[in-house]
DNA sequence: AAGTGGTCTAGACCACAAA
DNA sequence: TTGTGGTCTAGACCACTTG
C-alpha cells in the first residue's frame, strides 16, 4: 500500500522471525512474484526454507490471512488472494430521495456496479428472533424511543447468489413482531415491512464503521474471527417521520463497498 | 452481539480448547462479569485455570484482542476494553452542499458529535511523498483521468489531540506537487489545496469499505496488524467538476464513524 | 528486581479435502 | 490413502513496564 515506506527496520535485528517472514512473503505478493491464485509451498517446506518451526511459520501465514493477502484452505493449501470483486452499492446525492435501502438496492440493476460476478439474486433468511437483550438493545431503545422491554429483535442473513453476504440485526417495537412471518414471503425484511405491513419506509440516518468479526458474525458469514467487517447501521422511519426500526448490517469489507455519488456540480469545501 | 444464538456447539466436544476458552471469557465480558477496564489474571494463571499451556491460552486471548474485547499491554497485563468512544463525523443529507470534507469536519464544532473526549485539534503530518507506484496508482489514474506516470502521491497521518488518528493517501497530478510544501502551513492537505493553491474543492463521490490493517497502516496507527479499519475513499474536484485528487483514508473502526443525517422528511423506499 | 506479555522450539496427533 | 492445514504440549528465553 504505502509503497515508498517499504524499506523498514523490519528486516533488521530485533524483528521477530514470524514478522520477518510475513513481510518477505507480503512483498513477494505485492510485487507480483507470487501472483493472485498462486499456491504457496506447504507449511513444512516453508518452515524449512525460512529455518523456523512450523508453528512460527504459521504465525506469519495467519498474519497474512488477516491482511486479506492469502486464503488458507484446510486440507488443500494456502493461496494468494485475488483482488476483491467488490459489489458497489451506489446511492446518488443529493438525489437520495429516489434511493432505496441497501436491501432493495441489491435488486436494483442500476444501483449495483457491474462486477466480474454480477448480482442476480438476494434473499434474506431469518436466523433468530425474540426479545431484545444485550448492550445494543439499549442503543436501539434510545434510537427508537421505545422501552427496551418492548423491543423485538430479528437476526437475519442476506444471501447473494447463494453466498452468505450480509449479517443483519433489526430492533423494533414488538407490535410489529408479525413481520417475522412475512419475511419468507417477501424475500427481504424491508419489503416485509413495506408490502406486508403497508409501512412507507425512509431513512432518518445511516452510519458507517468497522469492526472485527465476533464469534457469531464469523460463523454467520463464514469468515475467520476478527475479519474486518464494514458496519452500516441506521434508523428507518415511516412517512410521518416516526422511527420504525434500527438496523445494523455487517458485511465483509472485501465483498462490497458503499458509494455515494454527487451527481450535480461539486460542493464547496468550507474553510 | 447475537444474544439468542449463544448456546452453541461451541461448548461441546470437537471444539478447540482455545476457542472454548475465548468463548468463555467473551461471555464473561458480555455479561459484565468482567467489567470494562478490569484486569484479567496473568496468562500463566489463566492457563493453569483452564488446564492448558500458556501458548494455547494466549491463542484465546489474542482472538479476543482481535475482536476488540480486550487490550493487551506488554509488561503490564490484559484488560477488558471499554466501549469505544466513537467520534461521529456527521454530514447532513440532502443539505450536503454545506458540508465540508472530513478533514475540515474535524475542526467543525457542529459536525463532530460530543463524545466523552471531545475533539480539540487535528493536524496532518506528511509521512512521505513522491511518484505514485503500486496497484492503487492505476486505480487513482483511472479515477482522475491522469496517466500513472504523471501521478504524485502523498502519504499523511492526521493527529487528533496528539493521537494518531487517520492514515491518508492522496494521488494527484504532479503539477500540484507544490502542496507538499504547503501542508505544514495550512495544517491540513485539503486546506493546502484550497487556501494554498486557491482551488475550490468539492466531492465527486465518496465510498466506504473495510480492511484489515496492513503492516504500514498498523505501524502508522499504532494498532496490531489485521485490526479492522474503516476505509473512506473518494475523488474531489474543482468548481468546474474536474477531478483534483483521489484520497483514501484509513481509520480505526472503534475510533470514529461516519454518519449521514437525513434532516428533512424521510425518503420513500422503492419496491 | 519482579512481574507481565512476546517469541520460539521439537515433536506429536488430529481433521479435512482430494485423488 | 495421501497431503494439507489445525491444534496442542512442556519448557525455555527474551523484552517491556513498573516499582
From TrEMBL, chains A, B:
SMART domains reported in the protein's UniProt record: HTH_GNTR, UTRA
Annotated InterPro entries: Bact_HTH_transcr_reg, Chorismate_lyase_/UTRA_dom_sf, Tscrpt_reg_HTH_GntR, UTRA, WH-like_DNA-bd_sf, WH_DNA-bd_sf
One GO MF term: DNA-binding transcription factor activity
Family annotation (Pfam families): GntR (PF00392), UTRA (PF07702)
Keywords assigned: DNA-binding, Transcription, Transcription regulation
Sequence ranges assigned to domain HTH gntR-type in this UniProt record: 15-83
GO terms of biological process kind: negative regulation of DNA-templated transcription
Keyword set includes DNA-binding: yes
Lineage top rank: taxon: Bacteria
UniProt name for this protein: Transcriptional regulator
Organism: Microbacterium keratanolyticum
